[in-house]
Write a sequence for this structure.
């Protein structure tokens, strides 16, 4: 194992700092102030900055960020960084010539600011040095290097030490391994948490004794997920057999089944986290498969990974070129004799110039992971609001539209003002603009989140809880949550006829909605039978292929024409 | 000829500018040349012509930051003036304000020419 360091820097002993400034003169000045003491990277706009930040996320000590820039502003970069678990750690100093911008930036998570015109070099340098020290100290205080339970490195430190290991052994081929216990949550549930902890502890100890003497880095990421960065050439079948045998002996429990995802001979140009993402992709292929214990990151997965990366890289361009299309799916009121169009849900589609139509199921998780989801969501919000205005102008009626809100959106400082401005610009009443927030976002039960939702409701927005039934909201929590509409998770609707249990679940959820005095919407309704069943059970609104799938706005107009 | 005396004569605070460049005269001159060639001057003129006050504000604001860092005081002042008007989206005499900026910039640019 590597010995402990209490500071982070690259091979030549310098910390890494990124300067983000669109003006070459300002960049050159800051660069000269920093170059003796730090390794300096430069970016000239927000988009480029984010790319560099992602590539160097575990080594960067500081980002110096201009606020006003073309393509993507400093505020947006800051917001995306704050919204990302991996990037939030990196301290940001904002550059500003406007006193007014200082307070909002600090509220948004900037560590400090530097004024333009710049003060004397020594003053600027001292300011930068102080913020780096401060952030490293805080980081070390907040993050002990090792995981209490297993004694291995925790995730953050694991990645940093692995980066250092790579720097110290540039010629070695290295493998990335993600290891976990199949169905660990069942062990925890059935045999108790204490027993689960004993298993994890034992795995930690055995990893330390069984991993070959050539060295490497070992850590635990979370729950039962272990990370190993090892020189290539190790026989992992053998390693896994030994570990499982050890566990059987230690715990007299034959049922601990280890699962390994291996990315061999990692690409040295790839950031460490990405190498382990690849190993994890391999591991996920054999989830719940007891016949296979080891899964390799192979050509198929590589192709998939490259595709994913391409999508991530293409996103900004796709927004600029309007490749993202917003489709609308009607929601019908079924309480009367005939179903009546009530509103629409705005859903995103990606028409990629090379890859064709891409399902949101593929690209949304990618953007959720890297924080870009905020930009995408806002794009949809804006499109939907403008579409409502166009329909009003054309048909003289308002079609209420619901849009999806990701958990991360609600933590942005200008979230509420953004929506308010959008309503004003398009002359929309907030009551006609529905915000769908997924149930799982609520289960965090964060005070800030609840307050934000209250604020939105206070302003008049309707809040829909999406995917109700998929998460873990307790009845207690539900009663306190600020919502207007419950949207039943579509899985229950799909299986409505296949099982009595599902029918009872749906009845129960409809009853909850009724008692809370909120409207219930069922999505994923495909057949008349389902529709009639739901109607009988007291469901008021319905969305699904029975009426129509999501369609382009022009096509949606025929539904509007029916009601006017 | 670009020289400290010539810059001073035009009203630049060269002492401050040099300090900011860590006392390196050549570096200071290099940055001045770079700053006066800034594409945002063209953008300022173009956006003003198109009455795109937001774009003009962004360009003026960026130029102001650069002129400030180079301590080209009269140019900085002209840019500050137009930036503040643009920030408030005021209905000001922008052609005249732009002319002030250009006059100041041209004066400094003339030093760089030979």
């Amino acid at each position: 194992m590597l010995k402990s360091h209490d500071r982070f820097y690259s091979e030549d002993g310098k910390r890494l700092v990124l300067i983000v400034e669109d003006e070459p003169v300002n960049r050159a000045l800051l660069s000269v102030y920093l170059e003796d003491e730090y390794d300096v990277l430069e970016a000239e706009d927000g988009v480029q900055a984010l790319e560099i930040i992602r590539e160097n996320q575990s080594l960067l000590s500081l980002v110096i960020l201009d606020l006003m820039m073309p393509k993507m502003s400093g505020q947006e970069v800051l917001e995306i960084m704050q919204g990302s678990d991996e990037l939030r750690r990196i301290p940001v100093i904002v550059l500003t010539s406007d006193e007014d911008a200082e307070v909002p930036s600090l509220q948004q998570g900037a560590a400090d600011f530097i004024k333009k015109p710049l003060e004397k070099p020594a003053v600027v340098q001292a300011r930068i040095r102080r913020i780096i020290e401060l952030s490293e100290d805080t980081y070390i205080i907040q993050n002990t290097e090792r995981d209490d339970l297993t004694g291995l490195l925790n995730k953050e430190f694991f990645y940093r030490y692995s980066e250092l290991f790579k720097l110290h052994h540039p010629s070695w081929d290295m493998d990335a391994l993600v290891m976990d216990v199949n169905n660990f949550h069942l062990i925890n549930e059935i045999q108790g948490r204490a027993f689960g902890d004993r298993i994890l502890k034992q795995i930690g100890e055995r990893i330390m004794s069984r991993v070959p003497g050539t060295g490497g880095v070992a850590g635990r990421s979370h729950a039962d997920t272990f990370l190993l960065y090892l020189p290539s050439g190790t026989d992992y079948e053998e390693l896994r057999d030994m570990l499982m045998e050890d566990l059987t002996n230690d715990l007299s429990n034959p049922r601990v089944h280890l699962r390994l995802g291996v990315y061999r001979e990692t690409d040295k140009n790839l950031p460490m986290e990405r190498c382990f993402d690849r190993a994890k992709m391999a591991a996920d292929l054999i989830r719940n498969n007891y016949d296979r214990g080891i899964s390799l990151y192979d050509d198929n997965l590589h192709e998939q990974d490259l595709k994913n990366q391409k999508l991530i890289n293409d996103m900004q361009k796709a927004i600029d070129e309007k490749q993202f299309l917003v489709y609308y799916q009607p929601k019908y009121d079924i309480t009367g004799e005939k179903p009546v169009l009530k509103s629409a849900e705005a859903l995103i589609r990606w028409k990629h110039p090379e890859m064709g139509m891409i399902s949101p199921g593929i690209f949304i998780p990618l953007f959720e992971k890297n924080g870009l989801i905020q930009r995408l969501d806002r794009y949809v919000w804006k499109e939907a609001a403008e579409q409502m205005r166009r329909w009003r102008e054309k048909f003289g009626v308002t079609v209420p539209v619901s849009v999806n809100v990701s958990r991360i959106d609600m933590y942005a400082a200008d979230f509420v003002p953004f929506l308010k401005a959008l309503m004003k610009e398009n002359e929309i009443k907030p009551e006609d603009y529905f915000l769908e927030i997924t149930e799982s976002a609520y289960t965090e039960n964060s005070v800030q989140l609840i307050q934000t939702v209250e604020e939105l409701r206070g302003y008049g927005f309707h809040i829909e809880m999406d995917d109700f039934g998929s998460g873990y909201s307790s009845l207690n929590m539900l009663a306190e949550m600020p919502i207007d509409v419950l949207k039943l998770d579509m899985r229950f609707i799909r299986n409505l006829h296949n099982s009595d249990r599902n029918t009872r679940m749906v009845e129960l959820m409809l009853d909850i909605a009724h008692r809370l005095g909120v409207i219930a919407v069922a999505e994923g309704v495909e057949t008349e039978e389902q529709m009639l069943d739901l109607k009988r059970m007291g469901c008021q609104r319905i969305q699904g292929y029975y009426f129509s799938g999501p369609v382009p706005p022009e096509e949606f107009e025929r539904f509007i024409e029916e009601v006017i | 000829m670009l020289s400290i005396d010539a810059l001073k004569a035009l009203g630049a605070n060269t002492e401050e500018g040099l300090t900011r460049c860590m006392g390196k005269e050549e570096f200071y001159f290099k940055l001045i040349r770079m700053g006066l060639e800034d594409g945002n001057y063209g953008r300022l003129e173009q956006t003003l012509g198109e009455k795109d006050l937001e774009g003009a504000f962004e360009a003026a604001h960026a130029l102001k930051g650069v002129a400030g860092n180079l301590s080209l005081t009269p140019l900085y002042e002209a840019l500050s003036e137009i930036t503040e008007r643009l920030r408030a989206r005021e209905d000001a005499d922008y052609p005249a304000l732009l002319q002030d900026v250009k006059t100041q910039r041209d004066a400094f640019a003339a030093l760089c020419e030979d």
Remarks:
- The interface with chain B takes residues 22-26, 28-29, 32-33, 68, 70, 97, 116-118, 120-121 of chain A (CB under 8 Å).
- Chain A is about 45% helix and 20% strand.
